[in-house]
Amino acid sequence: VVIGRIVAVDDEASAGEQTLSYVTRSITPRSGAQVLEVDEDTGDIKLVGPVNYEVRTSYTINVRVSDSAEPPMFDEGTVTVSVTDANDMPSCPPISANVTEDASIATILKNGVFCQDEDPGDTLSFSLSGPGNADLEAVVSDSEPRAF
Description:
The chain is mainly β and 148 residues long. It has one helix at 11-14, and strands spanning 2-5, 20-28, 36-38, 44-47, 58-67, 74-82, 124-128, 136-140.
């Protein structure tokens, strides 16, 4: 997915006499190379992997733009790619629990429900139900992992 473009101006390239190439010198942090790349021919900045605002809010790309002259002329610049926050889906790994049919009300199950949401301040709601029983609900007001 193209998320931006580095634009360089060169009179000879504009006249069609030369071409420009865009070479990534570095991406900070280094893990940014797994999520961003620069197209050497167009300067397009592409998102090639997942980003997560809760893990990293920005990446810095150092790029060298060269013309096709002999010897080539070049310049370097930096681009900062900012990650904006989005509503993350809560994650709940699947569980399995067994209870005997003669278990008393309020029996504590050995396996818990472990869910979390990376967005600070989000509230998770849980609904528990079974055949012939009224629905139960649990509400958590923070994003810390909880066991029920």
